[in-house]
Design goal:
About 5% of the residues lie in helices and about 50% in strands. By secondary structure, the chain is mainly beta. The strands form 2 sheets. Strands 1-2-3 form a 3-stranded antiparallel β-sheet, with no helix packed on it. Strands 4-5 form a two-stranded antiparallel sheet. Strand 4 (about 45) and strand 5 (about 50-55) form a beta hairpin. The protein is elongated, with a radius of gyration of 14 Å.
């Protein structure tokens, strides 16, 4: 697993946990980097998968 995503339901905010390798020599060691993105105009992006999802699509039919 490379990404873990939490999507808040009460406001346009997403928390993305990205797995980061710590050392090139030891493939089994990794750490998680956390990014919080807020705002309906933002975009959820997974660069290694070449995927971008607008928050407007994620929160379609959601009223805040």
């Amino acid at each position: 697993m490379e990404y873990y995503v939490l999507i808040l339901q009460d406001k346009p905010q997403v928390e993305i946990y990205r797995r980061m390798k710590l050392e090139k020599q030891d493939i089994n060691k990794s750490s998680w980097q956390i990014e919080t993105i807020t705002g309906i105009e933002k975009m959820l992006s997974f660069p290694t998968l070449d995927i971008k999802i607008p928050f407007t699509d994620i929160y379609r039919k959601v009223e805040f």
